[in-house]
Amino acid sequence: MTATIISGKQVSEEIRKGITEEVAQLKGQGIVPGLAVVLVGEDPASQVYVRNKEKACHDLGFYSEVHRLSADTSEEELLALVDRLNRQMSINGILVQLPLPGHIDEKKVINAISVDKDVDGFHPVNVGNLVIGDDSLLPCTPAGVIELIKRTGLEISGKHAVVIGRSNIVGKPVSLLLQRENATVTMCHSRTANMQELAKQADILVVAIGRANFIDASYIKEGAVVIDVGMNRLDSGKLAGDVDFESAKEVSGAITPVPGGVGPMTITMLMQNTLLSAKRAHGLN
Ligand SMILES: Nc1nc2c(c(=O)[nH]1)N[C@@H](CN(C=O)c1ccc(C(=O)N[C@@H](CCC(=O)O)C(=O)O)cc1)CN2
């Protein structure tokens, strides 16, 4: 079987084109979506992601502010900045880049972000609305997974989806979103006894466990859609997903690569959330 390679880069470009057009229309009404990104410390990967978010704002016509704070910034100082951004009219979305240094309580910071500006979709109110199926800002990576499947023209409704991983950021929300799209969802995690047997029943297999190349062809049903959310930096410096791509592509019907699969969708969905938030702030949508 020759698997379709699902390009997150290509889907991302399509979505960004649509966002750029909408932003141009809003500008005609005097509305410019604004995103504030806050980075604490000098984590090299976080610095790259923040630069990419700043570039996305520039490319798509958003107003952007990047607040680069030193690693010894206190929790109080960070909370004061979030409070200021919550009240700043030109800002529609606030994102605090994770992970934060150990002396800062991540939960406290996320809870301090205004629910309406929480473009990461991490605030407990947005998470709760996702659980009960109400409208909310959706977490970017899980929302990106759903967009990727749908825009590739693959069916979700009525399919058996198996999600490997139960993190708050990916596994849990992606399971809820697949269920919302009428998939029947099975969740697996590190204590699941018969993971291989369950995974092999999946029409759609989403993997987010943080273990490089863990899932090979022996976990995959012939023709299944395989979505790899893993991003593991190997000693060689190369990036690897949680799925052994070379092995998995021999049996799957469609598969995302790493890099170039789910990753590029994360920032694009962030821009989409910021646009949505800006429209809502002006009584549109
Ligand atoms: N506040 C947040 N912090 C973090 C999030 C998040 O969604 N919100 N997610 C990750 C990092 N992240 C965005 O912040 C992110 C990770 C990866 C990519 C991406 O495009 N990956 C590329 C490969 C990039 C590379 O070579 O390193 C790909 O997979 O093709 C975008 C965004 C943790 N923190």
From TrEMBL:
PROSITE patterns: THF_DHG_CYH_2. CDD domains: NAD_bind_m-THF_DH_Cyclohyd. Pfam families: THF_DHG_CYH, THF_DHG_CYH_C. It catalyses: (6R)-5,10-methylene-5,6,7,8-tetrahydrofolate + NADP(+) = (6R)-5,10-methenyltetrahydrofolate + NADPH; (6R)-5,10-methenyltetrahydrofolate + H2O = (6R)-10-formyltetrahydrofolate + H(+). Residues 6-120 form the Tetrahydrofolate dehydrogenase/cyclohydrolase catalytic domain. PANTHER family: C-1-TETRAHYDROFOLATE SYNTHASE, CYTOPLASMIC, C-1-TETRAHYDROFOLATE SYNTHASE, CYTOPLASMIC-RELATED. The keyword tRNA processing does not apply. This is Bifunctional protein FolD. NCBIfam families: PRK10792.1, PRK14186.1, PRK14188.1. Catalyzes the oxidation of 5,10-methylenetetrahydrofolate to 5,10-methenyltetrahydrofolate and then the hydrolysis of 5,10-methenyltetrahydrofolate to 10-formyltetrahydrofolate. Its EC number is 1.5.1.5, 3.5.4.9. One of its GO terms (molecular function) is methylenetetrahydrofolate dehydrogenase (NADP+) activity. Residues 139-281 form the Tetrahydrofolate dehydrogenase/cyclohydrolase NAD(P)-binding domain. Keywords: Amino-acid biosynthesis, Histidine biosynthesis, Hydrolase, Methionine biosynthesis, Multifunctional enzyme, NADP, One-carbon metabolism, Oxidoreductase, Purine biosynthesis. The keyword Metal-binding does not apply. Belongs to the tetrahydrofolate dehydrogenase/cyclohydrolase family. Pathway: One-carbon metabolism; tetrahydrofolate interconversion. Homodimer. NADP(+) binds at residues 165-167. The lineage of its organism: Bacteria, Bacillati, Bacillota, Bacilli, Bacillales.
